[in-house]
Structures are given as structure tokens and as C-alpha cells.
Amino acid sequence: MLTKEQLPRVMNATACDPAGDKIGTIAQVYLDEETDQPEFATVRTGMFGTKESFVPLADAEIRGGQVVVHVDKEQVKAAPTMEPEGPAGGLTEEQIDELYRHYHLESPHHAATSDTSDTSAPFGAPMTHGTSTASTASTMPPKPGPGLHATTRRPGAGDAMTRSEERMRVGTRSEETGRVRLRKYVVTEHVQQTVPVSHEEVRLEREPITAANRDAALSGPEITESEHEVVLHAERPVVRTETVPVERVRLAKEKVTDTETVHGEVRKEHIDYDGPERTR
């Protein structure tokens, strides 16, 4: 069981159930008005910690900076939500009874009127195996007074009050926004190019009979029919293609830094002075 001396380690600590699941952050601790020892705590739950649920501190213990309470996380989620209505911010008898019923604990108001000779411990209370009636009675939980009162001040703080506020922490995370890929495809283009071509043509040449060519001219029959054929040639354009590499293409990433404005809500505690007017 937690003691009042351990409150500095309890305030703003993380509350977990016996399985190690996080329940929330402890915001307030309610003390028994008779024993002045921790009896209940409110734990901030929910996505943004805006909801406070009551958790019993019976059998609670501190493990490695966390407060382990002996109730299930789902049971805390289903706990009744209530605002203090009693004197000095405490809980009323009806509210206390409702909390004890939810956690299957014996109500302090019922215990105060029950037979003190009953040595059976209520549900959730620690029980020590002993042989004498005195040792058994010493394991019974202290019987609270008519109510519980809350404390958010750490022991030894004197009359000072701690003011807290939330700070917005802004960070960044990397997420995929799209994908870029290289794709190669073939297109056909019409190209035009002028090339020079040549061809052969026939030209008729006549030469007179001279002493130099007379023998060649008289070598054949005197009168006859004959033909002489000349082969003509011409150049024609020939088109062929060849594949040649022209460039290398790749994808490169570069980091561009921009600025964005983010908005959020933070809570602050304010402290007001409420008392008689001061006189000079």
C-alpha cells in the first residue's frame, strides 16, 4: 500500500495495471480523511488525457517509476466519471459508495457500521495468513472517515503551488507521397536527307578515217550488218539504320526544404488569489 511519504513519486507518474498495460497519468491523489493516507487517485485517460478516472490505491506499489494498481485497465475505463462535490473539493458519501461498488470493494460507510468481530477481509484487501486474531485484524485496511479529500500538492512544498502548462512539441515524420519511374518506349519519326547520286549516259562520237585508224577500220568485211552494245550504270540511294547509344538517363532525388505552419491547442494552469483585500 502506498504511503503519504511516497506521494512525490506518485504525482504525475504513469499508472499501469498488473499486466503492464498503461492506464494513464496520475493527476490527483485522494487521502482518507481519518488516516490521511492515499486511498484513491484520478488518472488522466483518453487520447489527449482529458478524462480523469478514479483508481483505488489499495495494494498499489511503485515499480521502476511506475505505479502498479491492482485493477484491470478495462475496469478503470468503465469507472464512473464524477466531479468532487463535497466540502473542500472532496467526494460525497454517495460518490464514494459508487466507486467502491464499481471496484467490488467494501464501502467505508458500510464497514463503519458492520460488526468489528468479523475477521474476513473485503475484496481487494491484503490478507496475511496468521493464527491469532490480533495478527488477522492487523491486516484489515484502515476504516476511512466519512469522506475523501484530494491533494495535488507534494509533501514538503509548504504553501507553494505548482503551476504547469502544456508545451507543443512539433516534429516531422517521413511518409510516401508518390513514386516516379523511368519508362522507355519506341516512336517512329520521318527523317529526310539529300545524297548525291550519279548515272551513265551515252554520247555519240564520230571520228574521220586517218592513217592512224585506217587499218582498224578496214579489218572487217566491206559491207555487213552489226550491233554494238554499251552497258549503262546509275547510282541509287540505299537506306539502312544502325543503333548507336546517345545518352544515359537516370532518376536522382534531391531534398527541398519548405516551411509549413501547424496549429494545436495547449492547456495552461492559472493561479488566482481568492481572499480578503489586502490593506496597505
Provide structural commentary.
With 280 residues, the chain is of the alpha+beta class. The protein has a domain at 4-151: SH3 type barrels (Roll), CATH 2.30.30. It is built from 6 helices and 7 strands; from the N terminus they run αββββββααααβα. It has helices at 7-10, 73-77, 93-102, 108-113, 133-138, 214-217; strands at 14-16, 22-32, 38-45, 51-56, 61-63, 66-68, 148-151. Strands 1, 2, 3, 4, 5, 6 and 7 form a 7-stranded mixed sheet that branches. A hairpin with a 5-residue loop joins strand 3 (38-45) and strand 4 (51-56).
CATH homologous superfamily name of one domain? PRC-barrel domain
Instruction: Output the radius of gyration.
Output: 52 Å
Measured as a percent range, the helix fraction is 10-25%
Which blocks of ≥5 consecutive residues have pLDDT under 50? Answer: 113-146, 153-157
Separate helix tally:
6
Choose one word for the global shape.
Answer: rod-shaped
Structural class: alpha+beta
**CATH class annotation of one domain:** Mainly Beta
Q: List the helices and strands in order.
A: HEEEEEEHHHHEH
The total count of strands amounts to: 7
CATH architecture of one domain: Roll
Question: How much β-strand is present in the residues?
Answer: 5-15%
The whole-number mean of residue pLDDT values reads 78
Distance from N terminus to C terminus (CA atoms, Å) equals: 49 Å
Q: Any idea of the CATH topology of one domain? A: SH3 type barrels
Report the sheet with the most strands, covering strand number, pairing sense and barrel closure. 7 strands, mixed
